[in-house]
Amino acid sequence: MRDNEVVAVGPEPLSFTDVVRIARYGTAVRLTDDAIAKMAASRSRVEELARAETPAYGVSTGFGALATLHIEPSMRARLQRSLVRSHAAGSGPEVEVEVTRALMLLRLHTLATGHTGVRPETARVLEALLNARVTPVVHEYGSLGCSGDLAPLAHVALTIMGEGVVRDAGGQVRPAADVLKECRIEPVELAAKEGLALINGTDGMLGMLVLAIDDLTRLLKTADIGAAMSVEALLGTDHVFAADLQALRPHPGQAAAAANMRALLRDSGIMASHRDGSCTRVQDAYSLRCAPQVAGAARDTVAHAALVASRELASAIDNPVVLADGRVESNGNFHGAPVGYVLDFLAIAVADVASMAERRTDRMLDVARSHGLPPFLADDPGVDSGHMIAQYTQAAIVSELKRLAAPASVDSIPSSAMQEDHVSMGWSAGRKLRRALDGLTRVLAIEILTAARAIDLRRPHEPAPGTGSVVALLREVVAGPGADRFLAPEIEAVVRLVADGSVPAAAESVTGPLA
């Protein structure tokens, strides 16, 4: 990303691309004039309520189960500080910087809608933190996914107050007060309702959902590439991927995956070599023949998740909210069920795509099913083990992915003295999906590494130009077939090529854009 790129943040929904650019690549942000005006207008209404004798939740009362307690005006600044300090109670490992930046950005967007009653100067501090690449340290545990991602957002709010710890632009963990001073960012003393408005959102789980959609868009292309390479290596047929056959079951994801397979396998010399009538097989195994059906179903699941995410990106999540007519109303929009469900749904799809990839890998290694390939693709079977244990690694990951596919969103633990008696666990669904995506990346890398070795062993028959471009990419970092070598570094090298998008880029340099 260029250093001079800036994304405008106003009341309008953010795009998926902008969220990824800011969270993952550090692109700068700018609050729009419209956002500043809307925040100022809603702030004036909150200040009216703060002066009134009638209690208003979060303005002149306590929080959660303590909402019935009236707070005297002289204690309300302390009320906001106490709220943030007490709620910044996360524990466990630090979450990834990109997740925290997404959390910060999405909270800034909600503030920019003008429905929270936060002062513009408070939002400006959050804007400045993003632009200085100062990232509050947020922990793995602390959110139940209802009343928002409370603890994660409270750690961000603590930084806005100049307290707690952060990662500076260089990645070092340091006291927030020191880093803000160096960056010339003036912390704020939170005013009425501001502490609550900074922590009451589904921003963490939504941020993880948007990042996961970006990852899966790339990984599902890669899954099609791995499947095509495996079909080729196993002397399978591409006839089953014909458009007219796929049209009999008109799921859009399936059609896209099959089209990718056709493009990747076009003009394959390996396939041409067994189309001379000598092949007696009637059908390929399901893991080959049904690849578009599974990868396609995963694509359709991503499309549904993207629809949910787009609605959330158009939302203003807070409680209470300031409405356009000046009313300030309590609501339940902070419940994370819509996001939690699709995060869990994606974890199911990830596990199934990975499971099918592992089955194709195992087939290439089994001399009884690989149609002429050496056992385990070993150079000297018996002396060498080839990719035997690489498949073990795949199998271990797939087993873990099946456990991660168990939904988090069906669980609920009552909290806040039974005031918050049903929660979404959406944050937990997001955390396990991120682990699942890492696992899928590794499973696909091992399939592609194995398939490339098998394709090389089919020489002198040449692969398709599309799959051949991926084999050529791998050969830049991993040697071809030969005696056993230290395999872990080779796996990691291909994991990097999958993770950074190099694998689909190599294929698309020949096939054109894949769906």
Automatic annotation (TrEMBL):
Enzyme class: lyase
One Pfam family cited in the UniProt record for this chain: Lyase_aromatic
SUPFAM superfamilies: L-aspartase-like (SSF48557)
GO molecular function: histidine ammonia-lyase activity
One GO CC annotation: cytoplasm
InterPro entries registered for this protein in UniProt: Aromatic_Lyase (IPR001106), Fumarase/histidase_N (IPR024083), HutH (IPR005921), L-Aspartase-like (IPR008948), Phe/His_NH3-lyase_AS (IPR022313)
Entry EC number(s): 4.3.1.3
Catalysed reactions, as listed in the record: L-histidine = trans-urocanate + NH4(+)
Biological processes annotated in GO: L-histidine catabolic process to glutamate and formamide; L-histidine catabolic process to glutamate and formate
UniProt KW Cell cycle keyword: no
Subcellular location: Cytoplasm
Keyword terms, alphabetized: Histidine metabolism, Lyase
Pathway: Amino-acid degradation; L-histidine degradation into L-glutamate; N-formimidoyl-L-glutamate from L-histidine: step 1/3
Keyword Ribosomal protein applies: no
Domain of life: Bacteria
Family: Belongs to the PAL/histidase family.
Protein name from the UniProt record: Histidine ammonia-lyase
Protein's organism: Sphaerimonospora thailandensis
